[in-house]
Structures are given as structure tokens and as C-alpha cells.
Amino acid sequence: MATKAAAKKTPTKNRRRAARGGAGAQLTNEQNAESGFRASKALSENLQRVLVDLLELQLQGKQAHWNVVGTNFRDTHRQLDDIIDAARRFSDVVAERMRALHALPDGRSDIVAETTTLPEFPQGEVSTTETVDLVTERLEAVIATVREVHDPVDEEDPTSADILHEVLEELEQFAWMVSAENRTPARS
Q1: Residue 7 — φ and ψ, nearest 5°?
Q2: What is the 3-state secondary structure (H, E, C) of the chain?
Q3: C-alpha closest to that of 162 among 179, 150, 148
Q4: In angstroms, rounded to a whole number, what is the distance separating the alpha carbons of residues 103 and 46?
Q5: Residue 19 has pLDDT above 60, yes or no
Q6: How many whole angstroms separate alpha carbon 54 and alpha carbon 154?
Q7: Measured torsion, CA atoms of residues 116, 121, 123, 128, in degrees rounded to the nearest 10
Q8: Which of 25, 75, 164, 178 shows its CA 20 to 30 Å from the CA of 141?
Q9: Neighbouring C-alpha atoms within 13 Å toward the C-beta of 28
Q10: How far apart are CA 79 and CA 72, in angstroms?
Q11: CA triplet 45, 136, 107: central angle to 5 degrees?
């Protein structure tokens, strides 16, 4: 009997109940009259790729922020706050740009976890030195995604590409600044 009870209690990956709603809303006459540029499927997918990486960067940044320990703790802790704030700000800009183009951003946690290019962040305390390397790796992963989608986005919508320029500018600066924590000067 214990075997049958154990078999019935197999853990599920996600115990949340399924979402309700979202598919049956009717558009108002004003919304139906809305016109303008509409994102293609490719543009929507490219912006979605950037969105999930930014959302994951924000979450992993918080995980690092809460669990970093060691030399230069305070500086690392505060620098992580700056990265988290930028990721949050940029994810909102990208998602709102998608909505302006009649695309549907998807920031649900399961979608983010399934589609991000960022590797999983380790659980538990992480030294400042390792945190610097891990965060640099994640910043570079987001940067790679943005660079990969940039040209196709620019071909279809230069305005969205302008947003990607801002993301690149700030995240590349963070990657340089964070990685410098573990570098030693090059010898002449």
C-alpha cells in the first residue's frame, strides 16, 4: 500500500493552476480602429528573445545580489542593483514597444525559464570573484542575443533597433565594468 501511495505523489514540475482568461476579450470600436505599423512574426519573436533575456538577467541579478559574499561585497552588491534596475527598465521598454506594434510580450516565468539564453545561476552563497564572472557571462549572453537580432529588427523597424542600441550601450558598459573587477593589468 505504501508503494501505491508513493506512486500517486509523484512531484510535478509546476503546481500552479492553469491561467484563466486572456483569450475572450473583445476589442472596442476604438481599438478596432487602431492602425499603424504592425510587427511581423519575425520582429515579434526577435523582440521577445530580447525581453526574456532581460527578464532573466533581472532575476539572476537579484539572486546574485542576495547571495554574494566576500571581498568588495558592498561594491558588488550595489553594482548588481544598477544592473537589475537597467534590466527592469529595458524589459519594460521592449515589452511596451512590442505592444505599440500590436505584438504580445510574454514574460511569464515558465516562458522566461524555457526560452532564455542565460545559463542557470547557482543556488546558495557565491563569492564576489565568482559572482563577477557569472554576472559578466550573463551580461554577455544578453548582449549576444541583442546583437544577433539587431540587423533583422533594424531592417523591419529602425525605431525598435534604436531601443536595442540603448540596451547594447548600457549592458556593454556594465560588462566591461563588472569584468574589470577580476582583471589584472596587462604588462607592456
Answers
A1: -65, -35
A2: CHHHHHHHCCCCCCCCCCCCCCCCCCCCHHHHHCCCCCCCHHHHHHHHHHHHHHHHHHHHHHHHHHHEECCCHHHHHHHHHHHHHHHHHHHHHHHHHHHHCCCCCCCCHHHHHHHCCCCCCCCCCEEHHHHHHHHHHHHHHHHHHHHHHHHHHHHHCHHHHHHHHHHHHHHHHHHHHHHHHHCCCCCC
A3: 150
A4: 11
A5: yes
A6: 19
A7: -160
A8: 75
A9: 2
A10: 11
A11: 30
For the entire predicted model, the pTM comes to 0.84
Determine the length of the chain.
Answer: 188
- State residue 127 phi and psi, 5-degree precision: -65, 155
> Which cell numbers in the block locate residue 119?
545559463
**Model confidence pLDDT, tens digit, residues 76-134:** 999 999 999 999 999 999 999 999 999 999 999 999 999 999 999 999 999 999 999 99
* Distance of alpha carbon 118 from alpha carbon 124, whole angstroms: 18
Rounded to whole angstroms, the Cα distance separating 89 from 58 reads: 10
In 3D space, the residue among 103, 97, 92 whose CA is nearest the CA of residue 158 turns out to be 97
> 48-59: string of b/e by CB count within 10 Å (b at 16+)?
bbbbbbbbbbbb
If you search the block for the grid coordinates 537597467, which residue do you land on? 86
